[in-house]
Amino acid sequence: MTKKNFITTAWITLIVGTFLFLIYSGEKTIQNYFFYLLVAGLYSFTIAFGNGVVNDYLNSRFSWVEETRKRTAYGVVTTVIVNIILVLGCNYVNYIVFQKRDSAEFFQGDLAFSNWFTINIALLISAILHAKGFIDEWKKATRKEVVEQKLIAKSANAQFESLKNQLDPHFLFNSLNVLSALIDENPNQAQRFTSSMSKIYRYVLEQKDKELVTVEEEIEFAKTYCNLLKTRFEDSVSFAFNVDQNSLKSYVVPLSLQLLLENCIKHNFATSSKPLNIKIFSENGFLFIENNLQQREQVKESAGIGISNIVQRYSLLTRQNVFIEKSDSFFRVKIPMLTTKTTAMETQPSKESVAYRRAARRVEELKGFYSNLISYCLVIPALIFINIYTSPQYYWFIWPMIGWGFGLSMHALKTFGVGKNWEEKQIQKILNKQHSKK
């Protein structure tokens, strides 16, 4: 028993003992007051300690979260047995040892009723303690899930920011390489390229911190970037845009087209006799970037920023995949066009978040059942007490006890999955029959 539980039990002893002394004591003396405190302490500490030992043992063997059914079943059985033993022991010490009653009357008359009534009170208190223990364990589990979700979200956000930060130096480095080549080949084109590059780089700076941009914005930027590429490659490269008007308001990750266009140029050779033809078009909710395959030999290993960057950014935003198709004649990348603008991690529920939602629903179900159980344990003993003291010749309390008890049993079956398992088995049986007929 912890210090906190000991202090709580001591306060309960003081309150109950004082109450009993004021109501039942014939002589209001110090000796009688301490006697009632002793009796209250006997019941309070014995029942509290006994139930605490049972709870600690069961908690060490069965988890409320992972083994709810076993924990509940063993808890009900052991709690009933232990409380009957503890109450009978306390009653024997109180009535037989302290009050010198005849031991032959222990299970008869008013002592039998006292045994039965006290056992019900003890079981009610135990049920409340078990329910509190259950709720505390589930709160710990849900808090742990929340912490884990926050860590996952922070990690994903950091990863997303890292991916976006690749774009700025990557674009600048490649554009300067193109500019360097143009300065030697055609100084006038290099000058026009520098002017266009300043406009494009402004877009890069504006959009790289966004998670999603409209297809329309990305297409306009891609056309400007294609004009820049045409400045260098002239007739060696051609671009064709055929994006449906209805798709322009959808969303894609920013700079995805620029990375894919750059990927086409980087991995394919282009000459006037064998031009590289690049198509950008929309179809079935996807934006396509396709080129005829004229693969060049790689002099050095690629940095792998282009397509992998797009794939990873989409994976952090949505469950929809980026598709890559390759044949002997073409290379094609399909990026999903999203219909709703979201922030990172909103559209891709992880296994952890799904488990958290299930745990939250499970907590609500079990809280409902234990609230019903506690109400039953409170109300039914009160009805029995009223019935016996007002009309002992007719036990009308049996009817609400049976009716409510049946409803409580059905609630238990539903809460702990017995009914659900039966339904699932029946559904599976029907599906198996239909499958065998086919």
Q: How is the main sheet built?
A: 5 strands, mixed
Please indicate the count of domains.
2
- Output mean pLDDT: 76
Structural Rg: 38 Å
Structural class category: alpha+beta
- Kindly, what is the distance between the CA atoms of the first and last residues, rounded to a whole number of angstroms? 64 Å
Poorly predicted segments: 343-353, 418-423
What does the overall shape look like? rod-shaped
**What's the order of the H and E elements?**
HHHHHHEHEEHEEHEEHHH
* Proportion in helices: 55-70%
Helix count from the secondary structure assignment: 12
The number of strands is 7
- Order the strands across the largest sheet as they lie in space: 2-4-5-7-6
As a percent range, the share of strand residues is: 5-15%
Task: Give a nutshell description of this structure.
The protein has 438 residues and is α+β, with helices and mostly antiparallel strands. It has helices at 3-24, 30-61, 68-98, 109-165, 167-185, 187-207, 215-233, 256-267, 306-317, 351-390, 398-415, 418-437; strands at residues 213-214, 237-242, 251-252, 276-283, 286-292, 323-326, 330-336.
Write the layout of secondary structure elements.
Elements: H1 3-24, H2 30-61, H3 68-98, H4 109-165, H5 167-185, H6 187-207, E1 213-214, H7 215-233, E2 237-242, E3 251-252, H8 256-267, E4 276-283, E5 286-292, H9 306-317, E6 323-326, E7 330-336, H10 351-390, H11 398-415, H12 418-437
Parallel strand pairs: 2-4
Antiparallel strand pairs: 1-3, 4-5, 5-7, 6-7
